[in-house]
Amino acid sequence: MIQPPGVQIFGQLELLERLESGGVHYSHCISIGNPGRGFGRPDTVEPPQLRRHFRKVLRLAFFDVEALDQLGKMRPRRVPGNPTCAG
Questions:
Q1: DSSP characters over 6-51
Q2: Most buried one in 12, 28, 41, 58, CB count within 10 A?
Q3: Does 87 score more than 50 pLDDT?
Q4: Is the dihedral of CA 7, 26, 1, 21 positive or negative?
Q5: CA angle 61–6–54, rounded 5-degree value
Q6: Are strands 28-33 and 56-61 parallel, antiparallel or unpaired?
Q7: If DSSP codes are grouped into helix, strand and coil, which group holds residue 3?
């Protein structure tokens, strides 16, 4: 492990490849993905390898959309900045 302070930034697939190949990394991880376990998309599920390789993992999950039509049939309770979306 690398000693703090510092930051490394990886895409999810790139990070998983690095972990599998034994690449060095910090002790903690911030994982960013979309909410909604079970939708089958890779970015909705936290890879189990993260918990095995890091002391602590902070999982951030949020919708990264600019318009309601990007959500399809799925509707969160509230889309920030859009008062017409009610839950």
A1: ------HHHHHHHHHTT----SEEEEEE-S-TTS--GGGS--HHHH
A2: 12
A3: no
A4: negative
A5: 55
A6: parallel
A7: coil
